[in-house]
Amino acid sequence: MAIAIDFGTSNTVITRWNPVTKQAETLNLPGLSTQQYLNPPLIPSLVYVENAKLGKIIAGQQVCDRGLDLKTDTRFFRNFKRGIGADIQGFLPELDGKNITFEQVGKWFLTEVIAELAIIEGGIDSLVLTAPVDSFEVYRYWLAKVCQSLPVQQIRMLDEPTAAALGYGLTDPGTLLVIDFGGGTLDLSLVSLDQGTQAKTKPLGFLLKWGDRSLGEDSKQKTKTARVLAKAGQNLGGTDIDNWIVDYFAKTQGLPVSSLTARLAERVKIQLSTQDQAGEVYFDDQTFTSYEMDLDRDTFENILQEKGFFDKLDSVMMTLLQKGRRYGIEIDDINTVLLVGGTVQLPAVQGWVEQYFQPEKIRRQLPFEAIAQGALQITQGIQIKDYLYHSYGVRYWDRRNQRHNWHPIIKTGQVYPMSQPVELVLGASVENQPSIELIIGELGAESSATEVYFDGDAFGQHGYRLITRELDSTATIVKPLNDTAEASKIAKLTPPGFPGSDRIKIYFQVDEQRFLRITVEDLLTNNTLLENQLVAQLS
Fold first, then answer.
1. Rounded mean pLDDT of the chain?
2. Is 518 helix (H, G, I), strand (E, B) or coil?
3. Residue 355 burial by CB count (10 A; 0-12/13-18/19+): exposed, middle or buried?
4. What is the pTM of this model?
5. Are 107 and 83 in contact (CB under 8 A)?
6. Start-end of H helices in 149-282
7. What is the structure's pLDDT at 202?
8. pLDDT exceeds cutoff 60 at 354
9. Of 72, 222, 285, 297, which has the fewest Cβ atoms less than 10 A away?
10. Secondary structure class of 125 (helix, strand, coil)
11. SS3 of 281, please?
12. Per-residue pLDDT at 221 exceeds 60
């Protein structure tokens, strides 16, 4: 059985391939899926830890059914996907003598969901997982480690916007713009969808785990190729809007900031997707005070305006369109716009999209299911061609500015696997140098930096409201891949090195799984010191 999972910040969607109907269908997992949405069924991305040592948790809709999401409790986690691989400032609790990390919570959640799936489906042959377009290798490597412990033969990963393009079932060649706006991220992608003629193909994608056979090799469909041309993203989502609504009522009415008020704010936001006026009532059982959380659409959009919401959207759109022009694509050349994610249902967001594109170009009927349904396509003969969203670089000392800086060696836009490696020649810098060290990093886009952190005063002494904020300065976000004393020593020199001559040559290569590997040759001894070595085991 082929299964796809769209693990989202707010909700998770699971689809399976029906071999009889030859269609993707969304699954309803009893206990995990919400009954609020009969079509489609969604699994709230929530976790309540009952026993950390034993890994005993409650996940999904069961958390809401038991009211565990309505009280301030360090055992309750939401929006944890956002923290995986991010630089978090703040407090994470210790539960049952175990230090908790977002990576651990995410692993518990996915393992619980897949365990329930295996019981219902009688086993899983092929699994496809999706990832945000701007995720760093640390997130993808975490996902790979989670997958190694799963009883599944074949596991792949696909960028969420590419999956969305396939999920809308578009068959005519053309250029698509996918706007994926969920609970935690905003991702924009220009995707070229081509129709091939080859009857059978080995499906591609980022392979996390590979068994003995490929389900896609038996497909009789014509091969479609989804080629990603340009990407732009920002750490902005529906969760930020929920926080802004809570902050508005806290400022205007003195409303307490808590898990409960955050959930009520989310309900208000959802109501405003379909009506002009929304309201919820909050009763504080400590002070016996009630609050009317009434909000109309005009006031709501003023809140968004004050927070610079539309400026952020315009910035991401401009970045994407600039990248598209490198391929000769102007805004009028975009045939179709696909809206994906819960946040795209807000009239304010749809109105913003319509400022750029004519309404007849916009598809909005599959905001929740498109990604998971599209991800299944790579098990059915769809070939994906993708490129690196981030650059790789080496750290050096910038004498002019008296600080470390980064020099790109493999730039964003590089198709992988690479046909030819990138070469770098280095020499010793001191007398009798025993080894050469090199810090290698993954470089994000240069933009106004976004910081993901905890609001320490939000939930009292257990302050763990995960929020984002824009930093004033423009900077390149860097995730070092080997910034430890041992990992950075890429070459031991025997005999020792001396300044004045080239000593080693490094070949950088990105493989089919999108991992950076290096080969190091000693130019003095003609020995190969490292061969096709993975740069770092990320954690």
1. 81
2. strand
3. exposed
4. 0.66
5. no
6. 160-167, 238-253, 259-271
7. 36
8. yes
9. 285
10. coil
11. strand
12. no
pLDDT of residue 173: 74
Cα(326)–Cα(176) distance, rounded to whole angstroms? Answer: 16
Contacts 24+ apart (CB under 8 A), 323-326: 323/190, 323/229, 323/230, 323/231, 323/232, 324/190, 324/229, 324/230, 326/230
CA distances from 241 to 110, 182, 267 (A): 26, 11, 11
Query: In whole angstroms, what is the distance from residue 198 CA to residue 224 CA?
Result: 9
* CA dist list (Å): 259 to 76, 117, 240, 264: 9, 29, 14, 9
Tokens of 309: 């919401």
For residues 468 and 240, is the Cβ–Cβ distance under 8 A? yes
Burial 499-519 (b: 16+ CB within 10 A, else e): eeeebbebbbbbeebbbbbbb
Residue 516 to residue 16: CA distance in whole angstroms: 32
Rounded Cα distance, 281 and 263, in Å: 12
Mean pLDDT to the nearest integer, 122-147:
78
Q: Distance of CA 73 to CAs 10, 46, 107, Å?
A: 18, 13, 20
Question: How far is the C-alpha of 508 from the C-alpha of 417, rounded, in Å?
Answer: 12
Cα gap 446→158, rounded to integer Å: 24
Region 342-357 average pLDDT = 95
Tokens standing for residue 46:
């929530």
Do the Cβ atoms of 152 and 117 come closer than 8 Å? Answer: no
For position 333, what pLDDT does the model report? 94
Least confident of 337-341, 388-392, 474-478: 474-478
CA 453 to each of CA 29, 91, 136: distance values in angstroms, whole numbers, following the listed order? 32, 9, 17
The fraction of the chain above a pLDDT of 90, given in percent, is 39
385 in helix, strand or coil? strand
Condensed to tens digits (0 to 9), the pLDDT of residues 23-72 reads: 889 999 988 998 654 568 899 999 999 999 999 999 999 998 998 887 77
pLDDT given for residue 357 in this prediction: 96
User: Can you tell me the mean pLDDT for 502-529?
Assistant: 89
3-state secondary structure labels for all residues of 262-280: HHHHHHHHHHCCCCCEEEE
Q: What is the pLDDT of residues 168-210, one digit of tens each?
A: 877 677 888 999 898 888 889 888 866 543 333 333 344 455 4
C-alpha–C-alpha distance, residues 168 and 370, integer Å: 6
| Residues 452-463: tens digit of each pLDDT | 444 444 443 344
Place of tokens 């090195």: 497
Q: Do 50 and 94 meet the contact criterion of CB atoms below 8 Å apart?
A: no
CA angle 504, 505, 509 (to 5 degrees): 140
DSSP category for residue 421: P
What stretches of 1-101 show up as alpha helix (H) in DSSP? Answer: 61-65
d(C-alpha 41, C-alpha 29), whole Å: 8
Two tokens at 146? 């989670």
